[in-house]
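Hey, can you fold this one?
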Amino acid sequence: MPTTSSSTPSPEPCGSGVIEVTYQPGDARVGELCVHVGAELSITLNGSAGYAWTAVTSSDQGAAAIISSSGGGIGHATVHAVAAGSSVLRATTSFTADPYGPPTRLWQLTLNIEP
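Sure. Predicted structure:
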């Protein structure tokens, strides 16, 4: 049976400035991050042999604007938090040697942007 604590853990502070986000094969492919308006994310998506990343996309460019993004064996993106709100950043990686090979994998980061 789970135990409960009488103390409430403090929430993770929201990041600001330049924030490095790096994905390594085997890491969790879905995550969440809190940042302040004005923060810049520098994203690096490392791939597995034979896989290629698509460019990173933002579900809300008004909150999280993609400044630059490139895919390939290693994906890179720069994202600017421009307004309070939330946006889901996504990229996929597919096996390039065989279109019927291993399935496409999704990387996703929910970005919560605070003033």
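The chain has no helices and nine strands. Let me know if you want another pass with a different chain boundary.
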